[in-house]
Amino acid sequence: MLNDYVASGQIYLAMGHTDLRKGIDGLGVIIQEHYGKEIKENDIFIFCGRRNDRIKALLWEGDGFLLLYKRLEKGTFRWPRNTSDLAEINAKQYRNLMHGLEIELNKIPRQKLAPKII
Questions:
Q1: Radius of gyration for the alpha carbons in the chain, expressed in angstroms and rounded
Q2: For residue 12, what are the β-bridge partners?
Q3: pLDDT tens digits for range 63-72
Q4: What global pTM score does this model have?
């Protein structure tokens, strides 16, 4: 399900590592208190443990939470570890992450410059 998930809301990554022993309530507290983010309908928040081979995702469906857990049998997720912030990613970055590919966060496309006439 996580590989093929199509978000109608925003997709957020909890950068760094998270204690995956936490359940719905514990992850909800992290989102609201640590990151200061409001949980909105159809937004998905994804957390990764220290070993990079398992993730948990928390989704608010409007009438309740859905907690998803995925453990890879081989390999690891290419999880960004450079900060402890919450990063918003797009659908393409999400698909890449779920298929084991590296994702680049906050990549700003290069601007084309007009040649200077001297």
A1: 16
A2: 45, 88
A3: 999 999 988 8
A4: 0.79
Q: How far apart are CA 29 and CA 114, in angstroms?
A: 49
CB 43 within 8 A of CB 12: yes
- The structural domains of the chain, with segments of one domain joined by +, span 11-98
pLDDT 10s digits, 38-48: 999 999 999 99
What is the rounded CA–CA span in Å between residue 93 and residue 49?
19
Q: SS3 sequence, the chain?
A: CCCCCCCCCCEEEECCCCCCCCCHHHHHHHHHHHCCCCCCCCCEEEEECCCCCEEEEEEECCCCEEEEEEECCCCCCCCCCCCCCEEEECHHHHHHHHCCCCCCCCCCCCCCCCCCCC
Q: CA nearest 10: which of 69, 113, 88?
A: 88
Query: How many C-beta neighbours within 10 Å does residue 57 have?
Result: 19
